[in-house]
Design brief:
Order of helices and strands: HEEHHHHHHHHHHHHH
Distance between the termini: 89 Å
Number of strands: 2
Largest sheet: 2 strands, antiparallel
Number of domains: 2
CATH architecture of the largest domain: Up-down Bundle
CATH superfamily of the largest domain: Rhomboid-like
Structural class: mainly alpha
Helix content: 55-70%
Strand content: under 5%
Number of helices: 14
Strand order of the largest sheet: 1-2
Radius of gyration: 27 Å
């Protein structure tokens, strides 16, 4: 119940609806506004008149940025925790710890690393397609896994909540697959370990998606360029083929996500991802023409 003093005080009523009592002030003009007249802004709630003034004062660049950020997103994550990121880190760490067990580690690593000839029974008598993905679980040492998982943790905290868990996992797996396919095409007989291809795929997707939503990607692009260049420096035992393959596929997946953000394009997004996967497997038909 309101007291007579409160009822007689006009400042306790909405200036646009004098019959509605309220104690919320517009943060720009400091007039009382009811819930119907309140619009959430960066500084708090503002009234319709101040909102109109703010829009009239916007520059063309500000209006463009507002349109970009107001477009429908591919996903609205209800839980911002990067669960998939943490799960990948945990599984990779367990695989690395198992690899440290004497008498077991070498056997596990040899069973999981990527070696392209193992995909072709006519060449080696074996068919081990899991290696296309499991190579991302094994690493050559502490610094190798440490740097890869640190990069995954840093990127995943931002990218996974933006995409959603399913899309983030799809991006990671397709990037790992892209790295393995590139190794099969460009360095057929080289055994490869590590999640670098998948990590570079996350970098590629982050740059493409960031560019489409108007984010500043200059810093990420510089870090990516430096890490990519390291793979071409003689003396570094780094598979640049996996880096390039993962980067290209990750960028393509990011482009698919960016261009099919709306709900009405959800089916198109799925079909484009399926088509990309089919193309990657189809590229594995090329090496037999040169090595058999």
């Amino acid at each position: 119940m309101t007291t007579p003093d409160l009822s007689r005080n006009g400042d306790n009523f909405c200036y646009r609806h004098p019959d509605r009592q309220s104690f919320v002030l517009c943060q720009r003009c400091l007039r009382t506004i009811c819930p119907e007249c309140q619009t959430q802004a960066a500084v708090g709630v503002i009234c319709p008149e101040c909102l109109a003034d703010q829009r009239r004062a916007q520059t063309p660049a500000q209006r463009t940025a507002q349109r970009r950020w107001s477009r429908p997103r591919a996903v609205t994550a209800t839980d911002a925790r990067p669960v998939v990121t943490y799960a990948i880190i945990a599984v990779t760490a367990v695989a690395w710890l198992i690899g440290l067990i004497p008498g077991v580690g070498d056997m596990v690593q040899n069973a999981l690393l990527f070696w392209a000839p193992s995909l072709y029974p006519d060449l080696t008598g074996t068919f081990e397609p899991w290696r296309l993905f499991t190579a991302a679980l094994v690493h050559s040492g502490f610094w190798h896994i440490g740097l890869n998982m640190l990069a995954l943790w840093m990127i995943g905290r931002s990218l996974e909540p933006l995409l959603g868990r399913g899309r983030f996992l799809t991006l990671y797996l397709l990037s790992a697959l892209g790295g393995s396919v590139a190794v099969a095409l460009l360095s057929f007989t080289t055994p490869v370990v590590g999640a670098s291809g998948a990590i570079f795929g996350l970098f590629g997707a982050l740059i493409v998606i960031g560019r489409h939503i108007g984010a500043n990607i200059a810093g990420i692009a510089i870090i990516l360029a430096v890490n990519l260049a390291i793979g071409f420096i003689p003396g570094f035992n780094v598979s640049w083929q996996a880096h390039v393959g993962g980067l290209v596929v990750g960028a393509l997946v990011g482009l698919i996500y960016a261009r099919t953000r709306s709900v009405r394009r959800r089916a198109l997004q799925v079909w484009l991802l399926v088509a990309l996967t089919v193309v990657l497997f189809a590229l594995l038909l090329i090496p037999p023409a040169f090595y058999f």
